[in-house]
Amino acid sequence: MAFTELPLVAPERRTSGIRPLKVLHHFGKLVENKEDTEQVFHIIEATKGRRSLALARDFVRSREGQRFLADSVDIPAMLDDHARWADCAPNSVAAHYLAFMKREGLSAAGLVAESHRWAPPESLPHDQTQWYFDRMRDTHDLFHVLTGYGRDALGEVSLLGFSYEQNLNGGILFIAYAGARQIKKVSGTRAPIYAAIREGRRLGRAAAKIAHQDIAALMLEDIDEARARMNVGTPEIYRECLTVLESEGMAREQLTLGGASAQAA
Q1: Which contacts (CB < 8 Å, 24+ apart) does range 175-178 have?
Q2: Residue pLDDT, tens place only, 207-225
Q3: Cα angle vertex 127, ends 121, 128, to 5°?
Q4: Domain locations in the chain?
């Protein structure tokens, strides 16, 4: 069935609001094993509220949203088609994206598979709202590339501050601040960790919504021009924190939310 034939909101879709005990349970598991990124999806689902649902509905109803629905582009497949972007300009978004994904050993399909570990597609509501939430997931690594936040633990939680203002899901903000608290606890740093989260929020609020862009066209843009067009600012406090942490003898790979080295949050 084409996306345009799906209902805007399926009858079975429920907005449960914040379930704090469920959130704390899954965050505890994430702290124990930072590689267990399935827990992130559980936390997001346990805190998905009316604001994020309203954002999804508004975009789906918009002219651009309807165009993207009709196009039915498989974003992960498009992003993972590295041959398609091989001849792009050296400073294009595509060139930076490919370098980032190769350096980090990532694929867009891998993130989809991770999300399906806890929620198989057949268990999710079949509606246009789910199409939007999938779009938010599928553009996550583009957020890294465009903002300049790294995949170290501080970069991940700072990016979550940015992402919260883009998608209005309270679970994202919970993980950001809980993660910052854990970094502070583990490292004992004097770096302004919480200020980096607040900076991420400020930058995310000021920027155009990345998931609302024409992703194929965005990939072809010069990255500096794309950042300027979307008003994506530079995370100066995050970089200041990294400098402080390095001066304290803490390398990026030592930053953790738990016992594991910093990978994807």
Answers
A1: 175/27, 175/30, 175/40, 175/43, 175/265, 176/200, 178/27
A2: 999 999 999 999 999 999 9
A3: 115
A4: 3-254
Which DSSP category does 152 fall into?
S
Report how far apart, in Å, the C-alpha atoms of 226 and of each of 93, 136, 222 are: 8, 18, 6
pLDDT in tens, 38-54: 676 667 666 666 788 88
Task: Say how far apart CA 259 and CA 49 lie, in whole Å.
Answer: 31
Angle, CA of 22, 25 and 26, to the nearest 5°: 90
The first and second tokens of residue 115, run together, are 């999300």
End-to-end CA distance of the chain: give it in Å, rounded: 33
Closest by CA position to 154, among listed 110, 114, 200: 200
- For the chain, list the strands marked E by DSSP: none
Tokens read off for 141: 């690594």
